[in-house]
Amino acid sequence: MESNTQPLIPQQNHKKYHTYSFITCFAVVVNYIVGTGVFGLPSAFYSAGVPLSTITIIIFCILSCITAIYVIETLSRSHGYTMAVESGEYKCEMGYEVYDYSSMAQMWGGKPVKWATTITLMCSAYGSLWAYVATCVSTLSTLFWLIYSNEPMKCDVSNRWHFDWKCNVTYFTSIGVYGLVVIPLTFIDLTEQSLLQLVLTVYRFVSFLIMFITCVVQLGKNGPIELKVNTYEDVSFLKEFRWVGFGSMFTHVAFALACQQNLPDALAPLNKKKFSHIATLGSIVLCCFIYIGIALVTSWCFTTSTPSPVTLAWADYNGYEGGWGVGKAKWWALIIKYMILLFPIVNLTNEFPLVATTLSTNMRTLFRNKNSKRTKFITKALAAFPPFILTCAVGSLRVIFDVTGSFSFMLCFSLPCIFHYLSRRKVIAKFNKTKTPFSGPWSRIEVTGAVFIISLLLFITAVVFIIKELVTNFTIA
């Protein structure tokens, strides 16, 4: 037994850990949650209708909170179990070591579970990083052509393989520029970014607030608008259950609330561990309210012409007639316009190093000397560079989400239930202990099984609707 668990966390009793405050931890978790998913939610909101979309977000919020607690409970058991191996005394509490998904899988399920978990996490993390690069490259390219020739959609990424030389130069230059910014950040320790995390969190909430206010003003003054030619205003989605859009809504919400696999990195430096669940659950609930508010007003404002990412709608913002009128943009409208257009870039510039750190931490478990500086450098390089290579080949978010969506679902909903069950069973068998500082009614095996089954049923239902939608679109085409 000792040979399986002791190598996971070497003797580090005298190591000095860098810590951060509750506020910084809250900001880090929020930054993990708010990724590319939020920018596609308004379009999915319109496709599924407000009632179904709102119910879906609430259900996912509850499931995400429960599975996040499962991760926190497993982290507590992992620290207690490791200390018991070293000292012989089991004390269930969170420590400052990073017990990543791969380490927990090895500790509680052995090598088969570890390898399955590591491969799943790597595929999901690479998919997320790939999506971040693709989103930012697309936004940078759009901004360039908007400023240079007022043709923001000149180089449509969905038509990537038919680019002319100008679009190719813009595309690959954007990849290089984004890489020069985020790759160095990946090699900076997370605790050294605490001020940056707080600043970017403030920017994120200010941007959300501006998006919300500008859309409310537009709706109050002139009602919904048409951003594209041959589109029409359709507000029927405000009352309809559009089941055909459930698959799209499911994948967007699941991706938008994903944070469970990043919690070990985010919570390890927290100086007051007893507030781990408050920081995590508070972040998830807050993001859910923001998602509902932003998705509702933006989809209502742009209806059938709601773009993805939705921030592209502000390319036509000028401050007249509610905001999207006729005329040259006012000076303050230009500030709002570019602040929102740059939102995905700033957001994902912050997100990329966080996810890359989680990926590299889990990859280190595959190395014999996982705590050496050389291993840390190699794994961070392996985490940071491949997404840029993949984006050189494919930049379509639809393709990226189709390829990696199922892996993200496993990490956020299935694996936390499995970890909770395995760790609870093993600790009961060895130490006759059941509770952690974060236990509650949700910790019962019956609840864990129910969460696992409900999540699985939702996933199967979403896949059915996605296939149905693809078949329908193919038939119409």
TrEMBL record:
It is found in: Membrane. Residues 18-437 form the Amino acid transporter transmembrane domain. The keyword Lipoprotein does not apply. Its main location: membrane. The chain crosses the membrane at residues 20-46, 52-72, 129-148, 168-190, 202-221, 278-300, 331-356, 377-401, 407-424, 445-467. Keywords: Membrane, Transmembrane, Transmembrane helix. One of its GO terms (cellular component) is membrane. PANTHER family: AMINO ACID TRANSPORTER TRANSMEMBRANE DOMAIN-CONTAINING PROTEIN (PTHR16189:SF13), TRANSMEMBRANE PROTEIN 104-RELATED (PTHR16189). This is Amino acid transporter transmembrane domain-containing protein. It comes from Entamoeba dispar (strain ATCC PRA-260 / SAW760).
